[in-house]
Every structure is written in structure tokens, then in C-alpha cells.
Amino acid sequence: MASFKLTINNRAYDADVEKDTPLLWVLRDNLGLVGTKYGCGIAQCGACTVHLDGKAVRSCVLPVSAVGKAKVTTIEGLSEKGDHPVQKAWDEVDVAQCGYCQAGQIMTAAALLKENPKPSDEEIVSTMSGNICRCGTYHRIREAVKVAASKTN
Amino acid sequence: MQTSEQTSRRNFIKIAAAAGGGLFLGFNWSNSSALPVVVDAQKVAAGLVNFNSYLSIGTDNVITIISPNPEIGQGIKTAFPMVVAEELDADWKQVKTVQGNLDTGIYERQVTGGSGAVPHSWERLRKAGATARYLLVEAAAAQWSVPASECTTENGKVLHRTSGKSLSYGELAEAASKMPAPAEVKLKKESDFKLIGQSVRNVDNNNIATGKPLFGLDVYREGMLFAMIQRPKAFGLKLKSVQKEAVKSMPGIVDVVTFDNSVAVVGKSTWQVKKAKDALKIEYEKEAELESSADHNRIFQQLMENGEATVRRKNGDVETAFKNAAKVIKSEYQCPFLPHSPLEPMNFFAHVREDGVELIGPTQTPERARTEVAKLTGIAPEKITVEITRQGGGFGRRLAADFVLEAANVSKLVKAPVKVIWTREDDMTGGIYRPAVRYRFEAALDKSGELIGYKLRGVGMNSGNSTREDNFPSGSVENLLIDSVEYKSPITTGPWRAPITNFLAYAEQSFLDEVAEAAGKDPVEFRLALLEKAKKSPVGDIKYDVDRMIGVVKLAAEKSKWGKKKGVYQGFSVYFSHRSYVAQVGEVVMEKGKPVLKNVIAAVDCGIVINKSGSLQQVRGGVVDGLGHAMYGNMTFKDGAPDQRNFNGFRLIRMNEIPEVDVHFVDNGISPTGLGEPALPPAGGAVANAFYKATKQRLRNQPFINEEAFKGIS
Ligand code: FES
Ligand code: FES
To answer: Residue limits of the 2Fe-2S ferredoxin-type domain (chain A) (predicted)?
Structure first.
């Protein structure tokens, strides 16, 4: 066991875990941040997507020891009131079916728009194709990213 | 008017004042012809009457509606309350919806499966809303000393137009709870619906988008231990021995226990138990044949020729029809096993105590979970509670209770609250798959291209009856024989979204395309001619509504401009399943010499559409699912073990691979039927037939991606 100091959603956290523990399980089991989901554990589905210094990463394959001083943002901290343009677009377009993949989809979309506020259709599709939605909500995910982009300046 | 509680309590609507003021309507979801009964409010307060099932209206104007069926992504938690709110004339913004827990005393068919919840509950939900509305009107009329017939309702208010008076439901709730309930209530005319048919957003959107703990995997309890289970690595193996000690001393590990053929590692965190599970040294022994996919291919071929078949449907004399045929067409279609792959893997929480059991988690069949845990633990079902969480997909996998039993087993053995977690690898290799199946179709045409004989044989692996003998084209062909052969494989199987028809529909609709071509007829005309025949001179029993089927065929043809588009290769498919009718047209174009699927046009008859937004999602999702698995879904076996263990080996469809899906609903005012499944079966056929037009190659096996037509295309 080792002790790790983490900055998550602008808050300081301490975690006593083994150093190879993926950030995903530290968030879920140790810190009570369960919005980040487990889908595959091998960086294939994107359900576990969080931001590391604003960039989308897959927390299921990121050992907690590799986080260092980087700032982590999870779905719980994407916005204070759940009103990030991407979150709002997700409601407006009514994207979710089961909803399990959507935290990861939202985090992936938010990172994309941060880097590229006006992505082309191809850029949206190529980025979002890294995330699996088993319910097949892809049409509305694509639409919601566009809606969010149209509302971000 | 009934006033007695003794008259079978189960069958009545119950009304009483809520403890904090307001109207409780405890209505029974199990009897749609329920007579209402007034229950003494004092008895309720004294806890004498059980009010677990209710619609309640608080004096604060909040209307709470419980949705008892498990939510797996089909949108029931939004659709059910919409129906109640419609008849109630509630303001949707006032409505709060709550997931009900298992309560067999009040709810019936608390199951998600077979697209059956909406048809089962439609009447019940409407009556619940209408009864409450009636009482609120009575209360207002009494207060204003006007006849109830002069009062109207709108947006959560009772209005008296001539005097301009109005009271909100919250203001009336308490008085309404003291009014005698009606023996009968009048339901709205469909044409007066205001909420039903609109697009209402998923009631959990905000919780989902902000990462609230909603799912089974999000359940954490004080003192809870985590467990992962090593099941035999191949079907046909059983547990012989396990070296527990080395693993027990690993960090965070509390215990290693065994039951049935399972070894459970129990510890303090998910990651610790995962590492310990991976380090287990287990010996297995063979208890059945370790089958490989090559064995399955051989078995299919043998049984197709010499298997012992059970006749499912027989009309006329097929032998003679085939002897007299001018042309005979014969084709075989095969598909592999498939895992369900819900994005949230199997998991469950159990706390087995001496005096009771607490179960929490994602299950499509909470009652079955309880029954099986009662059997396992010897604890009476009344002492077992089941809390139903939101579920990260189900697709049929959560109809089984294996993972619930595992949690109960482990909790019982370690005497602690336990959450069992399956890794994706566990989920994919753990069995209960969509079974592999092979079909042989034969058609006899006479000189004029009329279909005079039809044969279908299904060879299934643990499928039971792998056919749906009464579906189209049955009823339209004079001489017909449908039979099935069953093979028992040690690989475990179970229902997978649209059981049987998820593959049968594709095979049948592809074959009908082949027959139409051989008969020199347009695929749509050919189907319509058969349906006309089924209508005019039905052969044997017909269990589908011919007119509704014709309706969707024509609508899909019209909306897709069938046969009229240049440079677009169209494929047609139509299927009736789970009480709904869906026709689809797939559209392929050639881009740089490669066939690319651009569009799927769907025409859907599921009766009244309750939630437009949710229904559109179900159809699009069903098409994407059907297409995705037809195109890429492949599970193969080597010596009893699946070759695909995670999403790197097992390919699920992604955003860059979807066509546009254009959906049209038939508006016919018929009582609604299910929509969680019916859009899936026709997808494979529509797409395969479109690819055929573009490439002249029939896709006879799934996944399509491994077929000749797609060689060199990924
Ligand atoms: S859980 Fe991390 S990518 Fe699937
Ligand atoms: S909404 Fe169910 S997995 Fe995406």
C-alpha cells in the first residue's frame, strides 16, 4: 500500500491503495465517485473516461501512481450544477437509453469541444467512435455533440 | 359501491389520506377491472393497510408515481408514469417518478422481458390516473357546491369555467382522499391525449449526465466486501481443487470460498480481488465434451440431414408440391453464439443474515431472484427484499438469476454483505449465450412463379423450438412443413433480445428475397401477394394481423421510395414479433468499389406510441443492435472455451459504422404493444438483401464481415 495525493474536481483527496490500482477503482471504491463507469478494463469502450489536465483518458488503464500532480476531472465535477453545455445537450437531445455509457460519452465529448470547439462531422464521428454504446444511441450522441458545439463559443 | 376490505383486498384500488396530508391512491397493478374500495384512513395510519403501490398527490402539489418494472434502457420509468399522468391530466412538471421494489402482493409481472410491460399495464395505468382524477373533481365540486359534470381538469388543476374558480390538485388532495371511490371510471378518448404521443425526455437524464449512483455496480454499503468469481474456463469442465492459501495472503483478501463449480475471492476492494482471482491456481476435470466451433459446424450439418425432428406446423402436402414444382430453391443460413454484452457487466449485492436477506442490483426478474435465493438459503421469501437498481442494459442476460445466487452464496459463506462483480471477461466467457443455430429453407414454385410449397428446418443448440412456426409466411402457403431439431450442448444459452427471431427473421427474409428473385418478382410485390392470399384464403391458423403487416410493408415501401432511387441498392424485410409489426428497407451505395450501408428506413406498427422520443430511440437502437451483431458479432469456441474474451476480440458496432435510421410510426389508435425488441429482427434481412443487390452475393452466415462479399473490406 502507498498513499497518493490526488486533485479531483478541484478538491484534494488522499488514497491508500496499491500503486498499480487503476484510477477508475480508486475513484469508485475509495473515493465514492461512482459516476465513472467500468465497461471493459482494457481501454476499449470509454465508459471510464475522465479528464487528466483537461484531456480525455481511460481511467481503467491508468495506474493511480501515474496520475502525479495532474488534475483529474470526473463526471461529478464537469460542472457544478450539471449545466455544462454537453450535459445540457445530452438532456435536450434525450440521448440516454440505459445510460451506463453516457458519463464516458459526455466526458469524451467535453474534452473534444474544449480542444476543438467547432469540430466537423468527421471529427465528431472519429473521436466518438472510441466509445461504445451497447444500446446504440449513436445517432443522438452525434446530434448532442453538435448541439453542444453550437452553444459553446 | 364496495366498502369492505374483506372482499379480496388484492383486487381493489385503495384510497386514503396520506400521513402528511394528501391523496394516496394505492392501486393494484394486477387487475385491470379493479373495483375501487374506500379504506379507512385511520387504519392506514395504524399501518393496517399496505400501501406500497401508489400514486400519491401531496399537498405540496408533487405527484409521485411508482414504476414497478425494471428499467434496463427501454424507457419504462418514463413511459409508465406518462400514461398515469395523461388520464390524471397532471402537469408533467409536477410528476416525480420512482422505481418500485419487488412486491408481489401488489404488482404483477414485475419483469422486463418479451416487450410485454406496456401491453400488460396499459389499462391498469390509465385507470389509476382516471380514478384519481375523478376523486379530485368530486372534491372540487363538493367544495364549490357545483355539479361535478361542470368541472374540467387541466395541467394539475380542477376548473369551473362558469365561475372562473380553480384549485390545484395539491389543494384538493386531502379532500379527495375522503371522497368515495367510483365503481367505474371513464377513460379518455385516444384523440384527447395530450401527453401520450409527445416526446418526453427520460426522467433520469439529469442523474445520468451528472454521474449519480444509479446502477447495480454503484451499490456500496457499510462493511460490504467485494467478490469476484472464477468459473470453469471452459464449458464441460468442473472444479477439482483449488489452492486457496497463497491467494488468501494477498493484500486485502479476506477469504477464498467455493460453491458449485465456482471459486470466489472475497476482499476489500475490486482491484485487490481481481488480482487475487487472476493468481488463483485451480484444477479442473472434464465432465462433458469440450466443444469447438468446428464441432458445431459438423453437428449442424449432420443433424440437418439425420436429426430427429419435431414437427411444428404442417399444412397441405409438401411432398407432392415439391414433386410438382417447376423450380425448387434451397438455402441454408447459420449464426454463431453471441454474448449479450450489456455495458454494465453482471453484478449483485446480497446480505444474507439469519433472519432475512437483502438483495440489491440489476435484474430483469426480481421475483425469480427472490425465489431462487429463498431456495438456496432456506429463508422464507417474505423475509427477502429485492431492491431494483437501474440497469446498464440487459438484452435478456439479466433474466437469469445466476449472478444473484452467486452473491447470496458468497454472502452466506462469509457472513457479510457482499457485492459480486463480473469483469468484462467474466461476462463474455460466463455463458448463457444467444445459441448458435442453422436453418434450411426450401421453396417450391410453380410455372407461373407462385409459391406452392415451403419447408423450414431449424437445428438449434439448446434452443428448444428454434422456429416460429406461425409467423409469416405461414398462413399464405398451401403446402408447408416446419420442424426443428434440438442439440444439447454443454455451452449454456438463454434468451437474447428478441429470442430466436433475432436470427430467424434475417434468415427467413433473406430467403424470401431469394424466392422472389427466382420467381422473377419484385420483393415487395411478392410479399404483398402472399399477404393478400393469407387474407383472402388463409391456410391454417394465422396468428399475426395480416392488415397490420400489409400496412407496414406499404409504408416502408412508400417512405423509402422503393425501387425508384438511382444508384441506391435497396433491400426489404418485414417481421412480426412481440406483438408489433416492423418493415425495414436497407440502402447500400457503392463508394470506391465498396458497398456502404447508408440508410435504414423503418415502418413500425406498435399501436399507440406513448413516448415519441423514447420510441424512436428503441427503434433506432434496435436497428443498430440488429445490424451490428449481424455484421460483426462472432463468438467462437476452442475446446469448450470462448475465443473472444473482451471488446478487443468481440466487435461491437461503433458510431462510424451506423447508417442513418429513418423511423415512421403507423398511427392507428390501437392499444400499444412492446417496442424493446421488435425493431431488431428485421434489420439483418433488410441489410443483407441490400448488400445482395449491390454485390450479387448472398450473405448466408453471420457475421457478414466474414463472408465472401466483405473479403478485403473491414
Ligand atoms: S472501462 Fe475503460 S475503456 Fe472500457
Ligand atoms: S445508453 Fe446504454 S450503453 Fe449507452
So the answer is: 2-78
Q: Residue B234 is placed in which grid cell?
A: 471452459
Rounded CA separation B99/B452 (Å): 52
Domain ranges of chain B: 3-209, 216-287+346-421, 307-337+433-710
* Top-level class of domain A2-77: alpha beta
Question: Are the C-beta atoms of residues B573 and B584 closer than 8 Å to each other?
Answer: yes
CATH fold group of domain A85-151: DNA polymerase; domain 1 (1.10.150)
Residue B625 Cα distances to A40, A145, B532, B653, angstroms: 19, 22, 31, 8
User: Per the CB < 8 Å rule, is A125 touching B655?
Assistant: yes
Q: Which three cell numbers stand for residue B295?
A: 464441432
Give tens-digit pLDDT for B360-372: 999 988 889 999 9
Q: Which of B226, B392, B648 sits opposite A100 (nearest CB)?
A: B392
Residue B26: per-residue pLDDT: 56
Q: What pLDDT shows up at residue B120?
A: 73
Which has the minimum average pLDDT: A99-103, B29-33, B355-359? B29-33
Chain B residue closest in CA terms to A79: B210
d(CA B524, CA B530): 10
Residues of A in contact with B202 (CB under 8 A): 94, 96, 99
What is the rounded distance in angstroms from the CA atom of residue B650 to the CA atom of residue B49? 52
Would the pLDDT of B352 be above 50? yes
Comparing CB atoms, the residue among B72, B212, B270 nearest residue A29 is B270
> By C-alpha distance, which of B620, B621, B632 is closest to B664?
B620
Give the tens place of pLDDT for each residue, B21-65: 566 665 544 443 333 333 334 333 333 333 335 678 888 888 888
Is A36 a pocket residue for ligand 2 (Cβ < 6 Å)? no
Query: CA-to-CA distance for B168 and B228, rounded, in angstroms?
Result: 53
| Top mutation candidate among A25, A26, A45 for ligand 1, by most atoms within 8 Å of CB | A45
| Assembly ipTM | 0.98
By Cβ distance, the residue of A21, A35, A99 closest to B390 is A99
Phi/psi at B230 (nearest 5 deg)?
Answer: -95, 115
- Class of B307-337+433-710 in CATH: alpha beta
- Name residues contacting ligand 1 (CB within 6 A): A 38-41, 43-48, 58, 60
With cut-offs at 50, 70 and 90, classify the pLDDT of residue B639: very high
* B279–chain A Cβ distance below 8 A for any pair: no
Q: What is the mean predicted confidence (pLDDT) over B697-709? A: 94
pLDDT at A121: 97
Q: Which CATH architecture has domain B3-209?
A: 2-Layer Sandwich (3.30)
Q: What is the mean pLDDT of chain B?
A: 90
Residue A99 CA, ligand 2 centroid: distance in Å: 5
Nearest CA in chain B to A141: B655
